[in-house]
Fold this protein.
Amino acid sequence: MEQYTVTGMSCAACSARVEKAVSKVPGVTSCSVSLLTNSMGVEGSAGEAEIIKAVTEAGYGASKKGAGKIKASEGGGGEDVLKDRETPLLKKRLWASVGFLAALMYLSMGHMMWNWPVPGFLAKNHVALGLLQLLLTIVIMVINQKFFISGFRGLLHRAPNMDTLVALGAGAAFVYSTYALFAMTDAQMKGDMELVMTYMHEFYFESAAMILTLITVGKMLEARSKGRTTDALKGLMKLAPKTAVLLIEGVETEVSIEQVKKDDIFVVRPGEHIPVDGLVLEGSSAVNEAALTGESIPVDKEAGDTVSAATVNQSGFLTCQATRVGEDTTLSQIIQMVSDAAATKAPIAKVADQVSGIFVPAVICIAAVTILVWLLLGENIGFALARGISVLVISCPCALGLATPVAIMVGNGVGAKHGIMFKTAVSLEKAGKMQIVALDKTGTITNGEPRVTDILPEQGIVGEQLLSAAYALEAKSEHPLAKAVTSYAREQGISLSEVKDFKALPGNGLTASWEGESLWGGNLKFLSSQAAVSQQAREQAEQLAEEGKTPLFFAKEGQFMGIIAVADAMKEESPQAIAQLKGMGIRVVMLTGDNERTAAAIGRQAGVDEVIAGVLPDGKEQVIRNLQKKGKVAMVGDGINDAPALTRADIGIAIGAGTDIAIDAADVVLMKSKLSDVPAAIRLSRAALRNIHENLFWAFFYNIIGIPLAAGIWIPIFGWQLNPMFGAAAMSLSSFCVVTNALRLNLLNIHDSRRDKKIKQQDQINQKMEDKTMEKTMKIEGMMCGHCEAAVKKALEAVEGVQQAAVSHETGTAVVTLEGAVSDEALKTAVEEKDYKVLSIG
């Protein structure tokens, strides 16, 4: 996405006009304009010149942002892009306007209504008093000339905007008052003092000036509030270090951050910020990563660990090698995610944009009709004009245009502060609408690293003996379970003994010669052929398997030594996070490649609604497709093999510690790698969507109530009459209220589940899933290994109506989950065509 800065926009009608103009440029595939950040994101093959030309011809200005990126490493340049330049200018305009307005109000209201004293020549000369009001009004109009320039330019380009309404309203009041002044002058020259006083009361100079001043007040309040919505992004940019200390030929040299290149060696002292992403070569320290993850507890780092830019080295001296610099650092990517999200448009915003596109022309027509109707009803031109001006100045397309983007920007900022990155406005809007959350087991629900959980030595064997033998044997293996055993042995201080004649027997186990004796390790089936395994040990193994653990059996010289159980430990927060998702009315499904028994045990511990076991790496995408038939699905994963499923899901959520491929494929990235951030992200999305609905309601309600009141519909019934000045004040406050309401999102505690509500119809969806899902268990003969399992699984899942099949060659079974009616004969035929025998189906 290429990003551009757009100037001259004042309301939603402007942004809609720019978007429409650029979308027509050949080669542009998508265009999204943000009134909030005055930015435009364009995708496609169109050139920069053509895009800028289209914006210019629409009556606005455009310039390309640096390489389409907002960089964290520009020494403040990136932050400068978001600097609030509008508020200081508006403040100057406001103070100048207020000064001249005070003098004008003194003359027009204070003297005329309450007889406040004025110099004698003014008190006696009504024309001089009128001329002075005219001059003061002209000064205020010149100070606020931007309204007239932008408004009439929009009118000339047949794209009227909010400024057009203000310019027409203030201009009409000024022109009519000028006419009244000249008519009064003529009457005074003729000596008709009664007519002079009549015309004196027809002056609307103070209304024209007050309209401009009050709109400026509203614009300034709006600009200040809009500036606050980008505080989170500016805060991230401030974190970027400006310098780094490189180690060049053994000498420490301080350089600007732009000079750091990949593979440079840099050093970081205690208390300093880490300048770029890197790999620790020497030293150890505690690093505070709160800036990126929101996690306040420091993380221990040592040689071989990675560090990220903008994190703080708290204790030790580190020597590191730069791995990612400039816009490739984690911090820059986070900033770019937040920036891109602000440049994109949520689907709900399109409704407001469509209304805004026709809103201003419609209001101008309503104002013209209002004036005409009151004239036909016999009212004088001054009264009719006041009603028309009120319609023009009370109408506010800005509130409509800002309703969505301010909530999206603040929501993104809140997410960024807590390590939750929404890549687009669409993902922030859609996340809260999810009905099913599919969780990949390994690395998402569990830590992804097997750990030793139980040491069960056989009678007569000491635990340390069992562990020593297992350590010696497993040290030669590359299997993940072997690494769990060796890590545990090192932690227990067991010394490593060398083995000879090591052999790994695929699918079975390990064997070697240790201290002159044969050593064996593996599963129950393999060990049973080498030693006598007691009934008690078999029962213990059965119990361990029920708990989702993998029992490893060891024997020496035909003597069974005992069992070491290994399991992928569950993350501490997983059960609570899943309970929170269920409390929101979301159905939680766990995907795993484990066998049915292990998967069911982990599913029970985690508390998920449904377990889909035996899912092959390339089968996750198909599972997501099947789940999407029952509702909107969010997929949470961290591995390369999760990328297709993350892309297929309605919302893909990547665990931040996962692979770059998974993160690229996802719509939401959790920097802290905590499952508890999944319900937090959904909670934030729901709050942002609720805020958008409140803003849109206020914007529509305000205009629906305000325009008829300004037009004078209620005058014949209740006598309610709106002065144009109060209309301008209401217009100013409407946008301010919308922006202020969005800022309330900053007060949201995204980890507080006490106010969670179940989404509508979710119980029916859950019941529908349970009603539609049937299971059949098949007894199959002839499966000998994992390849057999895969062949049977593939054959069964190819049968129409089969959702998934969990196959185990160890138990000789296949548990088939059905979406609809599938005959036993169809299942039997599918398996027997692969040369396996079906014994029974139940």
The longest strand covers residues 446-457. Residues 677-711 form the longest helix (35 residues). Residues 67-77 have pLDDT under 50 and may be disordered. The CA atoms of residues 471 and 489 lie 6 Å apart.
